[in-house]
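User: Can you predict the 3D structure for this chain?
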Amino acid sequence: MSSHRRLVKHFSRKSGPRKALLRGLMISLVEHGRIKTTIAKAKELRRHIERIVTLGKKDNLNSIRLIASRLSNPDAAVDVVKTIAPRFKDRPGGYTRLIKVGRRPGDQAEMAFIEFVDYDYKSKLPATDKKGAAKKEDKAAIKIASKAKKATSVQAAKDKKVVRKMKNKSRAANQAAARA
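Assistant: Here is the predicted structure, written as structure tokens:
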């Protein structure tokens, strides 16, 4: 089947579920700044998100309403107009980038990150010193926590044994009293 002059990727979905899929992807991208999805979905998402950001750059009530109708989330629409669009005020287009990340293990689908070009991934990473002192502290804290957990579980097991012995003794005493 030829794909000439086709304007929409169908993703093996009817129009309603396809619109819902794209709407969800757009909202996620607006909220997080970067999402991981298949390459085909990312390319289709790029078309839609570019139009929304361009609309958001107009910063008027009508554009907010149009964006809200496409995203179906008024908070995300306001977020586009107030935070995302001003970052790209001087940029004529090309607000997103695709970064291929290999294939998904389950079905070998090609995956990609789609993100805004000014996305700062370094701010999302935990801060560490040159020698990784934070990592060592985290490992030490985890080790101490696991030892404490193990000690409490050992104590709980001992308590269970004591309770079990007491129950067995009282059960035996009750049975002996019932026989007599």
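The two ends are 90 Å apart (CA to CA). Strands lie at 34-38, 96-103, 110-116.
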